[in-house]
Amino acid sequence: MIATITKPEAPSDDKRWKIVQATMRRNGYSRNALIETLHTVQNSFGYLDEPALRYVAASLRVPLSNVYGVATFYHLFTLKPQGEHTCVLCTGTACYIKGTPELLQHVEERYGIRDGETTEDGKVSLLTARCIGACSMAPAVVFDGEMEGEVTQEQLDEQVEAWMAS
Amino acid sequence: MTPEELIQIAEERRGQQAAVGKRINVCAAASCMSRHSDKIAEEMSSHAESLGDKAEGVEVRCVGCMGLCSAGPLVEVDHPADEAAGNDAPKTMYRGVSMDDADRIVEAAAGGTTVEQLVQPTDIPYFSRQKRIVTENSGYIDPESIEDYIAADGYSGLVTALTEMSPNDVLHEVTISGLRGRGGGGFPTGLKWSTVAKTDADKKYVVCNADEGDPGAFMDRAVLESDPHRIIEGMTIAGYAVGASKAYIYVRAEYPLAIARLKKAIRQAQKYELLGTNLCDTPFNFEIELRLGAGAFVCGEETALIASIEGRRGVPRPRPPFPASYGLYGKPTLINNVETLATIPWIVRNGGDALASIGTAKSKGTKVFALAGKIVNNGLIEVPMGISLREIVYDIGDGIPDGGTFKAVQTGGPSGGCVPGNLLDMPVDYESLQEAGTIMGSGGMIIMDEASNMVDVARFFMEFCKDESCGKCTPCRVGTAQMLDLLEKLCAKSATEKDLELLKELCDVVKACSLCGLGQTAPNPVLSTLRYFEDEYMGSLVGGVSGDGRPVPDVETKAGAPDRIER
Amino acid sequence: MARQKLPPTQTLTMKIDDVDVTAKPGQTIKDVARDHDIIIPGLCYLDGLSIWGGCRLCLVEVEGMNKLLASCSTEVAEGMVVHTDSPKLRAYRKVVIEMLFAERNHVCSVCVSNGGCELQDMAVELGVDHVHLPYMDPDVNLDSSNDRFRLDHNRCIMCTRCVRVCGEIEGAFTKGIGGRGIDVRIINDLNMPWGESQTCTSCGKCVHVCPTGALVEKGTAAAEMDKRRAFLPYLTIMREAQR
Amino acid sequence: MSDKKKPVTIATVWLDGCSGCHMSFLDLDERLVEIAPLIEMVYSPVVDSKEIPKGTDVGIIEGAISNEDDRAKALKMRAACGFLISLGDCAVTGNVPSMRNVFDQKECFDRSYHENAQLQPMDPTVCVPPLLDKVLPVHQVVDVDLYVPGCPPPADAIYYVLSELLAGRQPDPLLLTRFGK
């Protein structure tokens, strides 16, 4: 190859890019590591913004359209920033039978947010997951990464309101 | 690692274990952990420490899933064997253990007594009717300790295979075991392995499909969290048998605990040279890498899974060619589900015949199910193939809670169907379930009582399939969306007979024409509920009006519709 | 051609629609059928591009197989017995065509590709005179930001020919697929307006391989868009040269 | 239909469409003369009758179903006619009228009666039938026996369809017309 390809520079001097770079380096900057790298970006920054997608694309030499295609194919990746706190309601079969729809409706009515939306103050995002494998404790909710089983409306309110008051 | 070294580690560990008089096992699988069992274990440890001499010989440790998740957090105390009475080490299981109970359980264990109010009887059918192969170590060993696994005969299958068997011997045992793919399809595992083994290539891969995506299924999660080394051993044996040296575990990112334990297990196995180069001083090399899914059910499909491991959109491609000849990076690839691979070490240790002696004529061995929904005993069970659904629901599951009435059991998730009460005596095996219009699936078993509306159940699964359709092929992309619209219309009681006819037609087209398993099976929940609960569909139709608009309704009642001829 | 007897592995015999035919190993059912003047319908397949297998119009019945197989991707085998035009297949293909019409907003009468559209042709060929599925009326947009071309998602059938020609032949990888399920869309780069794409070379190949009015040249009125298809045979040559 | 003594009775209606299909019908030109003795137009925008007679042999619908009036007429046609034809793309597919389906009704009203109004912008209230949520092809409202797509279907196609029907044969309109033709 005649043209030399220089390593692209990180979008900012944010330290978190070092973590992203480490993931790419560990995978030998292989195109196959696209999903791994996007995981790292998402875990580090909370979401995938355009500069991040461009940077990953350039670093791994994956076409922009492929990066966007992958980022929008998988549920776990999000292109929008999330709220400070996330509340993930499981919508697997067991949870569905045992009351998730009512919980979702409750959240929508009380806090005015639907699946994938964030409260106006940016505090709480409501997300759903297709079965988190906690069927025996249905309905299950993951509050900021901590799973809770047999969640009632009261429990949910308690947590969400604590967040909103914080 | 030589066979002798392995035996030595096992014996050393068993010796250590024997020295511990009273072991308190705390379930630290996801379900109990979410009820803070890890904190309870910590409290128990520190309390035992504070008791000093009084708690001599008491060891608290975290173990994997004990199965009866609905009664969690579960704690089991192994008392010392009473040789005078000729007893084996008696065990006491406690249910619903809270932080407040931690101290008194430690004290009771130290004093050789029990906390009666918390005792979970273990002589109930839930425990006695199970046959544990895949979950043999779950709840007994510390999932984060390779020594514990080795002490439970772990890795002896691998070492035996490498040192005493040829790859063909291994293939032979797997073939005669009659093992079939536990991910749902039920393809004979021996045949799949032989196909990969026979294909000539410079490089081959083994992939463990741990992308458990069925809503209502958590068997793989429990196995990965409770006994991760089992998967590593199974994969390594598979690699040896088919001639692969590199493997991937494709695991859901939604399972952080399983991921952490797998990572740890891989490191431990590398340290003990059970992964790496020249294993057991043979020319066989094997390495395993983790790959995280990112939330796409379709990646359970083999070709989509391959695309995802390669870092692309998880979109399936037409088969043939099958991954066995053209798979990951274009190389022959063996893809097995977690439970399938978890059965392998047992087969190698006990022989293919031993597995073949369990089960029915065509379905051998055991199957792990996740019992959930409206049933008393929620949790994980492993039963011999051929057991009846009635035994699972009423004996092992202990029936429907709150005096409810059984209506149907759903198996196979979004690819399966609902089995009604009059078929409860049916044996659980691949063929019988298929005949009944559902599938074995990966093992989710959701029990429904009379409160469940079956049209709504069908709608739920169709919504799932529509959301999870990758969008590549027309029938699945458009068909699932159209079917969902029709089911929503039914649920809103605004559908006509014509809509129902159209729904049936779309079921047929989507099933026959879709590219991959997701689309081909997406109509199953509708078809099976139509088969057994058609009256509920008929009851959902809009009253009395037929779709063709005949006879003419009274148009004069339509406001603002002046009866004039043309505008 | 010298009448040499080929070694047995070089040809195989099979049956397509009750006609005995010969084929070379590695050929697909679709190719062999075409060699014998049996044209199997299809919309995503295009000579010279990689095989996609998504439109499902070219499904055929193969005796002994319990599933329908896509003829564009299935290789022939000795003794294979294939049916390409059974009443069942025709019925399925009709519904698949209807699905494509129902999925987006194909208003033929005001489409610049009216009369030059493979979807229309396929509807006529398969006898689709109406769509009995409910129209889904999605709110999808149209991208006119490129100087020369327009991307109208209303008329896109997700055959992905444009994506493949852009990546595999032009090598620009501007076009891709975003989203999934019923929400999949053809995208440019990071789903930006086409006119802002830095990778697009404006070669126009995507426009001319597009079977419908989803990708068209600007400045054309209804039914005026004649796609330049003359270069299509050369796609194969290009691909062969690349290998 | 094969009864040669009695002319075949035909009713046509013009629902939401541009009337182009009726124009195309008139484009039969001198062939109208040929057909005239064989048919009787019992109801149509081009004749002056107020009711669709019960027991009409053939009904022809041009246009999509956009409002309650269209719907009522389609139902009446179905009830009155033995054989119902969807004529043209609006009737068969919804066509141009259905392009409003991606907007909600309020947007449509605002655009039509407010943004584009020269004076006195207001929503109409009198003598205007309520719009349906979505514009529908005719067969989504009543059963249709024959579909003749085209925008408009060429006169040749209409002539072919009518003469086949008059001869007691089932026509295949796709031989001469298609969506958008």
Topology overview:
The complex is a heterotetramer of chains A (166), B (567), C (243) and D (181).
Chain B: H1 3-19, E1 22-27, H2 30-33, H3 37-51, E2 58-63, E3 75-78, E4 91-94, H4 99-111, H5 125-128, H6 146-151, H7 156-164, H8 167-177, H9 189-198, E5 205-210, H10 219-226, H11 228-242, E6 246-251, H12 256-271, E7 287-292, H13 302-309, E8 333-337, H14 338-350, H15 352-356, E9 366-373, E10 379-384, H16 389-396, E11 406-411, E12 417-420, H17 430-435, E13 444-449, H18 454-468, H19 474-491, H20 497-513, H21 517-521, H22 524-532, H23 534-539
Parallel strand pairs in B: 1-2, 5-6, 5-8, 6-7, 9-13
Antiparallel strand pairs in B: 1-3, 3-4, 9-10, 11-12, 11-13
Chain C: E1 12-16, E2 19-23, H1 29-35, E3 59-62, E4 69-70, E5 81-83, H2 87-103, H3 118-125, E6 142-143, E7 149-152, H4 161-170, E8 175-178, E9 185-188, H5 205-209, E10 215-217, H6 232-242
Parallel strand pairs in C: 1-5
Antiparallel strand pairs in C: 1-2, 3-4, 3-5, 6-7, 7-10, 8-9
Chain D: E1 8-14, H1 20-26, H2 30-35, E2 39-43, E3 56-62, E4 65-67, H3 68-80, E5 81-87, H4 89-93, H5 105-115, E6 131-136, E7 146-148, H6 155-166
Describe this structure in words.
The complex is a heterotetramer of chains A (166), B (567), C (243) and D (181). Chain A is of the alpha+beta class. Chain A has helices at residues 16-26, 34-45, 50-60, 64-73, 93-97, 100-111, 153-165; strands at residues 85-90, 124-129, 141-143, 146-148. Chain A has two domains: 16-73; 85-165, Glutaredoxin (3-Layer(aba) Sandwich). In chain A, 45% of the residues lie in helices and 11% in strands. Chain A has a four-stranded mixed β-sheet. With 567 residues, chain B is of the alpha/beta class. The longest helix of chain B has 18 residues, at 474-491. Chain D is of the alpha/beta class and 181 residues long. The longest helix of chain D has 13 residues, at 68-80. The chains are: A alpha+beta (166), B alpha/beta (567), C alpha+beta (243), D alpha/beta (181). At the A-B interface, helix 2, helix 4, helix 5 and strand 4 of A face helix 2, strand 9, strand 13 and helix 18 of B.
